[in-house]
Specification:
Blueprint (H helix, E strand, L loop, with lengths): L13 H18 L1 E5 H20 L2 H8 L5 H14 L8 E8 L6 E7 L6 H14 L2 H65 L1
Antiparallel strand pairs: 1-3, 2-3
Helix pairs in contact: 1-2, 2-3, 2-4
Length: 203
C-alpha cells in the first residue's frame, strides 16, 4: 500500500480516504459546521476550500467537478447558490477550525470546523479593494489619458482664436492706413484748386 503524502491516512486505503473526505465535505456544506478529530479537520480544510473555489466560479464545468465528488445534488445546489455568494468577497479562508478538547473514551483531540459566512470587516474590505486595484492597473491609465486629450484640444482652440483675432485686426490696420492716403489726396485737390484761383485773381 503506498504511503500517504500528507500525514497519516484517514482510512484503510486511498479510496477509503477520498470517500471519507467527500462525506465530511458534504456534511460541512449541509450543516455549516461539524465536530470531528483535529487530524480529520486539518485534512478536510483544503479539500473543502477547493470545492468552494469551484463553486465561486459558478460555471457548468465547475458544477460537474463538484458533482463528481459530492453525489447529492441538493447539497451541491446549496453550495453554489447560498455558500458561494456569501464568500464571494473573500480571497480564501472559507473555513475555521476551533479545538474543543479531547474526546471521552479514546482521548482523541477534537475540533469544530465551520464555514466562515460572516461579512468582511471594514479593514478586510479595504485590503480586498486595494488588492483588486493592484490587480487592475489599466483603468487609472485610461482615466489619466482623457485630461491629456482635453488639454490638447484646449491648446488647439486657443490657437484658432488667436488666428481669428489676427485676421480681424489686419483689415482694421489697412483701413487706418487708407485714411491718411485719403486725406493726402483731398489736400492735393485743395492745393490745386487754390493754384487755379490764384491766376484768376491776378488777372
Amino acid at each position: 500500500m503506498p504511503t500517504p503524502t500528507k500525514g497519516p491516512r484517514l482510512g484503510g486505503g486511498p479510496a477509503h480516504e477520498r470517500l471519507m473526505l467527500a462525506n465530511l465535505a458534504a456534511s460541512l456544506f449541509e450543516h455549516k459546521r461539524i465536530t470531528t478529530t483535529v487530524t480529520k479537520a486539518k485534512r478536510l480544510r483544503p479539500y473543502a476550500e477547493r470545492l468552494v473555489t469551484f463553486a465561486k466560479k459558478g460555471d457548468l464545468a465547475s458544477r460537474r467537478r463538484v458533482l463528481g465528488v459530492i453525489s447529492s445534488k441538493s447539497i451541491v445546489h446549496e453550495l453554489f447558490t447560498e455558500i458561494a455568494p456569501a464568500v464571494a468577497n473573500r480571497e480564501g479562508g472559507y473555513t475555521r477550525i476551533t479545538k474543543i478538547g479531547n474526546r471521552k473514551g479514546d482521548n482523541a483531540p477534537m475540533a469544530v470546523i465551520e464555514l466562515v459566512l460572516e461579512p468582511l470587516s471594514a479593514k478586510q474590505a479595504v485590503v480586498a479593494e486595494a488588492e483588486q486595484a493592484k490587480a487592475a492597473p489599466a483603468a487609472p491609465a485610461e482615466e489619466t489619458a482623457a485630461p491629456v486629450e482635453s488639454a490638447e484640444t484646449v491648446e488647439a482652440t486657443e490657437t484658432a482664436e488667436t488666428v481669428e483675432a489676427t485676421e480681424t485686426e489686419a483689415p482694421a490696420e489697412s483701413t487706418e492706413a487708407a485714411e491718411p492716403a485719403d486725406t493726402a489726396s483731398s489736400t492735393d485737390e485743395a492745393a490745386a484748386s487754390d493754384d487755379a484761383e490764384a491766376p484768376e485773381a491776378k488777372k
